Every structure is written in C-alpha cells, then in structure tokens.
Amino acid sequence: MKFSAFLLVVMLLVPACSESVKEPAVAGSFYPAEEKIVREMVDGFLSKAEKSKSAGRPIALISPHAGYQYSGHVAAYTYKQIQDSDINTVILIGASHHKAYTGVSVYAKGSMRTPLGKIKINEKLAKLLLDEKANVFFDASAFEKEHSLEVQLPFLQRSLKNFTIVPVLVGTPTRESFRHLADVLTNVLRKDSRAIIIASTDLSHYHDDGTARGMDNSVIDSVLRMSYEEVEQNLLTGKGEMCGGFPVIFTMAVARNMGATRGELYRYANSGDVTGDKERVVGYAAMGLYKTSLTQEEKTQLLEIAKKTVSNYVSTGKTPELNITNPNMLANGATFVTIKKHGELRGCIGNTQPIMPLYKSVITNAISAAVRDPRFTPMTKNELKDIEVEVTILSPIEPLNDIKNIVVGKHGLVIVKGDRSGLLLPQVAEELKWNVNTFLEQLSQKAGLPPDAWRTAQLYSFTAEVVK
Predict the structure, then answer these.
(1) What is the rounded distance in angstroms from the CA atom of residue 43 to the CA atom of residue 37?
(2) Coil, strand or helix: which one is 20?
(3) I want to staple 200 with a disulfide (CB 3.0 to 4.6 A). Which of 65, 165, 260, 281 is the partner?
(4) Which helix H or strand E contains 361, and what residues bound it?
(5) What is the DSSP letter of 298?
(6) What pTM does this model have?
(7) Is the pLDDT of residue 14 over 60?
(8) Which domains does the chain have, with CATH numbers?
(9) What is the spatial distance between Cα 136 and Cα 148, in angstroms, rounded to a whole number?
C-alpha cells in the first residue's frame, strides 16, 4: 500500500474511533425505543404539566425515574420548570441500581444516546469532579444497565437546546466523596448561572397507598424545609424511603451552599394512581430547590417572635406556643439573636448551620441569649423594660480566599484554627467602626487566639439580614 493511501485510511478511521457513545440500555422497556413515539410521549407529558409561579429559576431539581407509563407525567413537572430556558449544563445525579461500589462514578467522556439522538458529555467539568482519593472515579460499567439517569435524557432533549451533561452515579458514598462533590459542584454553580443539578429518585416502594403517602410526605416535608440531615434520618429509621436518597442529599447540600432556603413540590403521585392497584405502590415526586428572600413582613414577624420568646421565658420559664404555617418560616435557617441593655450587649447566641426551622431557630436562640450566654448572668424580669432585641438571619458560610473581598458592614467572619474558633456578625464591625484589619484582629481574639492568628487560620465569610 502506498503511503498516501495508508494515510487516507488512517484519516478515515480516526473520526470513527474518536468518540465513545453510551448506547441506551432501557429504551424499549422504561420508555419507547422509536424516535417518533418517545418524542410524542414526552411532548404530551410536558404539554399537560404546569410551570410553578415561584419567582426565579430553581437551583436544583428532583425527578422520578420509573417507567414513563408510571412516572412520566410526574417527571414532566420537573422539566417544565426549565423548558426553553438558557441552561446549558446539567449535572445528573442518580443511584447505582445494578453495580455495587464504594464512592461515586462520573461518566467522563464521549456522549450518551437515546432514540432522540446523542447528548455530549461535558468532559471538562466531568474531569474536574474526578478524584481517586475522594473515591470519585470513572467506571463506564456502572452505567451499562443503569436506568435512573437514562430516563431523564429524553425529557432534557425535549426541554433544552445546546446543552451538555455530567452523569454522576452514587454507589456507597464516603465522607470524602460527599465533601469533594459538594464543594466542587458548589463552585461550579457559583461560577455558572446556566448550570443546574437534577437528582433522580423514586420514593417509597411496594407499600399500600396510605402507608406510602405517609412515608412520602415525611421525606417531601424534609426536602421542602431544606433539611438533608432530616432526610438522612428518615431513611435510616425507615420513616421514609428513597432509592435515590444519597443523590438527593448530595443535591440538597449543594443547593443549601448556594443559599437555597426552601423546596417546592410541583407534583406527587404514586403508581396506584395509574394502575389502580393501591396495595403495592411506588411513590414519585417532582420538586425544585429555591433561594427565596424573606419579605419585610416575615422579618418583622421573626423579630416579634424573638421579643415574645424573651419576655415569656424570662417571666414564666415557658416557651410561647406558635402555630406557624408560612413555608419560609418552616424552612430550616441559621440565626443569631442579640439582646442589648441600654445600648450595651446583654446576650448573643446563634447557630451557623440551618439545622432547624427558621422560626424555631429564633425561639431557641432568643432563650439562649437571655439566660444561657456564659458571659452574662441569666436575665431577670426587672430588665425586660430596658432591653432591645435584634435577629440576624445568616446566609451560607463560605471559605474566604482573599481578605480583599471583605466588606465591612456586609460580611460576617468565622475563624478556625486547631480546636479554636470564633464568629463576629457583620453589624459588630460596622457599629464599632472597625476597618478590615481591626475586624480580623478582633475575630482572632474572639477565638482566644493572638491578634495576628488570622494570617495562618482558615477564614470563612457570610452575609446577613439584620432585623431590629
């Protein structure tokens, strides 16, 4: 063979071998294998789904993954929220149903095919997620028979244009894989407003309709309040079930890092609603995770709750009984309650992580600020007439990589060094007219460290809404 002819053969062969394509595994079983039929089916589901009236775009979504005849009408509500949007990167997170392994597998190259065509893998982002030390790797065999992510693809193809995907399959997660993925994906979403995470899960399996709805409502309520700790507890105790529990927990952690304050349920149903068999059903939910700002009325209500709590507890030792139905108040939040007497600090206690409903955080911290701040004696009834109360609602705490980004009056700071830590709220620096250097020195001393300890410590920042 002449060299020129050999070169031509090589040139013809290279393109054919340059891209790996993951062929569909469940087309023809979970959804139709024919292009026309699957397109018409998905479009039909989408046409009947409704778009939420909530302001803004969701930070993340949750979608079921059963056969289309059972859950397709529910999944459509998930994808209706982003239909015809400018989203161009979708991180899909599901659970591995067919292969057991420790950690997380990320499909890192090529594309995935459905009857509607190929979808490119975002190889740059996928490789960014890989970290063998964190048990995050690329194992193509984990995806061979997997349906939890594949069934999402036709919905994406009929909802978005010009997008890439990063498929992520969770096996048995480790602490390292959780932290790594949560940190990296948080950074991805912070830098790219056109990226979104979609978690794939069904809910309870094979209980009667009444039992299923009770279990599913427990899980859904925890998601709506953005409490992934409670989701995990529900799964561990059997109070609820999710076959994609860890993918949802991963997704909620990232969304909470992004400032998500609440979830929204678009649609719930179970297989019995389709088949009529109410004895052994599987639950499905379409949900979104949102960042929502409190209204002035809601902020005022929180302040009134704090005042009432301090007054009641100091006077009677009892916590006020409240009937709270506002979903923004029921969502988990992080707050501080500050009490001043004649303008001087009298107590200040809070929680930095959203581990309880927002209104309960205010109640708990109001009581602690009044009678449990170790710097002060417990407040007496005689002092109530002389005090002022304020509530501080914290944003997620983020690593601070450059002190040049600190804005006095806007940012609160946290310092961690060894077993020492300290926190100062943003209003402290503003009220005392500190500059950034003084703020950092005072923060160090608050943690019981030398004034210049901040130079070698881990620093974090947050913003806050202060209600006086």
Answers:
(1) 10
(2) coil
(3) 65
(4) helix 358-371
(5) H
(6) 0.87
(7) no
(8) 15-290 (3.40.830.10), 294-394 (3.30.700.20), 395-468 (3.30.1490.150)
(9) 19
Are 148 and 190 spatial neighbours (Cβ–Cβ below 8 Å)?
A: no
Q: Which two tokens stand for residue 25?
A: 């595994």
Residue (of 49, 70, 64) closest to 219 by Cα position: 64
Cβ atoms of 244 and 94 within 8 Å: the answer is yes
Q: Token match 């009677």: residue?
A: 316
- How far is it, in rounded angstroms, from Cα 259 to Cα 290? 8
- pLDDT, one tens digit per residue, over 421-467 is 999 999 999 999 999 999 999 999 999 999 999 999 999 999 999 99
- Assign 370 to helix, strand or coil: helix
Cβ atoms of 180 and 134 within 8 Å: the answer is: yes
Q: What are phi and psi of 116, to 5 degrees?
A: -90, 0
DSSP state of 161: S
Q: What tokens appear for 465 in the block?
A: 């809404």
What is the Cα–Cα distance from 49 to 31, expressed in whole angstroms?
A: 18
**Cα-based angle 219, 223, 228 (whole degrees, multiple of 5):** 95
Which one-letter DSSP state was computed for residue 468?
-
* Whether pLDDT at 9 is above 70: no
Name the helix (H) or strand (E) containing 233.
helix 228-237
